[in-house]
């Protein structure tokens, strides 16, 4: 695809990124979406990393974006290290499935390595990420509670190969997404966008399956 540029998000992009996020996520994981509210709120959260908030432009139109927060891994001795977690990541529906998310992921990973980060962990649909170096958390001994439960959707990417050394790690995500628990605030924020029909889509059932399952063997 021609005329693509990746650059850092600026304040002038905020609304366009929120609109894009709303379009991309609408009805995918539930009827409607909260991710545009998450985007709006995370920019003022202390864990947000503005140096890794990128937009993808085609002919001057923002058609994709990626945003990161800090997250942490803690071993059984309580040793803690700062890592990354991206999301939301989205591509405009009219350009999806053409490989554009790869550009955003690879570009931001390169910058993240320059900043000294060596691990990124996300919750997500494995199909979107296994071709980008992500593996099951089980293979890297990462879980939420050091309890041997390895959620299917918890995916680990070593930005520097070998960064994780087989130790048991507890994944501690940022609290940035907690804002979405305030459903009234999210709905009020959404009300300022054009009306859009909420509907069921099969991807919601797919999301239910991978977000309620674990890798056991
Ligand atoms: C998920 C999303 C970011 C992926 O971006 P994209 O540019 O459309 O995806 P890509 O074309 O780079 O494909 C990513 C992977 O999805 C899979 N994929 C591609 N086309 C697919 C299709 N038609 N059906 C199922 N999976 C497909 C492939 O595994 C592909 O990896 P590969 O290139 O190694 O084969 C984008 O579809 C999107 O914005 N979706 C809505 C929001 C969302 O779910 N964001 C992610 C959660 S934070």
Taken together, the total number of domains comes to 1
Percent helix: 25-40%
Average pLDDT for all residues: 97
The third-level CATH topology is Aminopeptidase
How large a portion of the residues is in β-strands, by DSSP E? 25-35%
Distance between the termini: 41 Å
CATH architecture title: 3-Layer(aba) Sandwich
List keywords for this structure.
217 residues; alpha+beta; 3-stranded antiparallel β-sheet; globular; binds coenzyme A
Molecular structure report:
This protein is an alpha+beta fold. The protein has a single domain, classed as 3-Layer(aba) Sandwich (Aminopeptidase). Helix content is about 25%, strand content about 25%. The chain is built from six helices and nine strands. Strands 1, 2, 3, 4, 7 and 9 form a six-stranded mixed β-sheet that branches. Strand 2 and strand 3 form a beta hairpin. Helix 1 packs antiparallel against helix 2. The protein is globular, with a radius of gyration of 17 Å. The model has no long low-confidence stretch (mean pLDDT about 95). The site of coenzyme A has 19 residues, from helix 1, strand 4, helix 3 and helix 4.
Summarize the structure.
The protein is an alpha+beta fold.
Give the helices and strands, then pairings.
Elements: E1 4-8, H1 14-25, H2 35-42, E2 54-58, E3 61-75, E4 80-91, H3 100-114, E5 119-123, H4 126-129, E6 135-136, E7 142-143, E8 154-158, E9 169-172, H5 183-190, H6 202-211
Parallel strand pairs: 7-9
Antiparallel strand pairs: 1-2, 2-3, 3-4, 3-9, 5-8, 6-8
The structure holds coenzyme A (COA).
């Amino acid at each position: 695809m021609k005329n693509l540029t990746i650059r850092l998000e600026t304040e002038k992009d905020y609304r366009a990124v929120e609109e894009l996020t709303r379009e991309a996520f609408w009805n995918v994981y539930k009827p409607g979406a909260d991710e545009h509210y998450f985007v709006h709120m995370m920019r003022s959260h202390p864990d947000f990393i503005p140096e890794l908030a990128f937009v993808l432009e085609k002919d001057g139109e923002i058609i994709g974006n990626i945003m990161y927060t800090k997250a942490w891994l803690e071993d059984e001795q309580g040793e803690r290290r700062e890592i990354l977690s991206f999301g939301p990541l989205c591509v405009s529906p009219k350009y999806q499935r053409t490989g554009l998310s790869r550009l955003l992921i690879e570009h931001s990973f390169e910058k993240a390595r320059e900043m000294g980060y060596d691990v990124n962990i996300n919750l997500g649909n494995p199909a979107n990420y296994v071709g980008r170096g992500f593996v099951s958390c089980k293979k890297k001994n990462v879980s939420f509670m050091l309890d041997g439960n390895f959620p299917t959707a918890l995916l680990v990417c070593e930005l520097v190969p070998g960064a994780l050394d087989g130790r048991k790690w507890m994944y501690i995500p940022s609290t940035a997404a907690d804002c979405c628990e305030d459903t009234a605030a999210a709905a009020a924020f959404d009300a300022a966008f054009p009306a859009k029909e909420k509907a069921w889509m099969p991807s919601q059932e797919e999301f239910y399956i991978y977000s309620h399952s674990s890798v056991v063997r």
